[in-house]
Amino acid sequence: MIVQPMTVSGAEVLPLVEGGKGVSATNGHSAGAWARAGGIGTFSGVNADSFTPNGELIPQTYYGRTRMDRHEELVAHGVRGAIHQARVAHDVSGGAGRIHINVLWEMGGADRVLIGALEGAKGLIHGVTCGAGMPYRLAEIASSYGVFYYPIISSARAFRALWKRAYSKHAEFLGGVVYEDPWLAGGHNGLSNSEDPHAPEPPRGRVVELRAQMNAAGLNTVPIVMAGGVWRLDEWSDWMDDPEIAPVAFQFGTRPLLTQESPIPDIWKAKLATLKPGDVFLQRFSPTGFYSSAVRNPFLDSLAERSNRQIAYSIEAVGDHAAELAVGARGRKVFVTPHDKARAEAWVADGFTEGLRTPDSTLVFETPAAARQIHKDQVGCMGCLSQCRFSNWSEGETGTNGRKPDPRSFCIQKTLQAIAHGDPPEDHLMFAGHNAYRFAQDPWYDNGFIPTVKQLVDRITTGQ
Predict the structure, then answer these.
(1) pTM of structure
(2) Which domain holds residue 108?
(3) In a shared domain, residues 177 and 261
(4) Is the pLDDT at 88 greater than 90, yes or no?
């Protein structure tokens, strides 16, 4: 098959996009290599790494006494890291291809980090991809710097809302619309409350609907970027000239992880090569409240087990909640059903002695050590999200969403930084697309072969 070049972000390139992903899963080296190979390289602008003049990693350590203080440190880290990665990507690319930055609209200080990156790396960034929420201000910010923008959406309805409210005012810099399959993509997924996570819909019908919506708005020549579930192009060849879809480009999120230039640690790469069908699954433990796709491992199993050790309670005897239960070292009394009291006493006997209150008037039971760690992580929050159910952080004057912190979730900044910088993937959140099992099934990767980005792009252009 022949992959025809396409004009993207002002230059003729291969219609092959490196998925930007999140914390340190792509960087300037991987994005620059992808662009140098003729495609669109994307580095993550989410808490991106930065380095001293001597090349030493600057740890993202927080010293502020308050969450607001630490949040300001986080934004400063983010801006500095994004500028650094943009410069590296530009240098590595040698001026070939295009360089995009990926930001998540639900990350803390998203607009400030994006503005800081575009201001500090003028001329080095050609496009901005952005998802995880409804990024209404994306068009305004990107176009003010003469940079193309690429919203990530999972339905025509989401694009329609963005277009009517904001994007129609900045149509000249809408470089493309990324359709991310919410059942197949890795990381956070755009499933709405009306969609069943266990009943995936084929992407074609949803993309055809998106194209019709775009054409009705006069966006006939603006490409759709198919993302999520894309492994080899010969499986999508019928889309390329389909008048109900084209023009179309393709985003690869999972395959670029297993390249020599990929910044993820070797231990993570080795784990990817062993995955089997079903090892990646949709779950809703994220502090964002979104569904996300990740590798089933002891980290996620422990969260599931914690939620299973859960009972409803009331602060006074009401209805069936008539059995008195003493909770924690202080023995504070709550009322539960007799059945749930027996369950709680069994958990306590097994060492899960701490009853942690949730925003939903339930108790989850944990060991004292785990309870202390949860509390420490919640207190140490630096506002890495716009809103966080784990710590009850929310951007704004008060810094809180007004609800109890939810111990059924976790500190996402902590775990993503840890896995990205060498901690065992079994102990942390390991995002991956649902096709990750294909590494183990594709003979190209036999005997531990890890290609360069150039080798991967060349391979993809053959259709494989």
Answers:
(1) 0.94
(2) 6-265+439-461
(3) yes
(4) yes
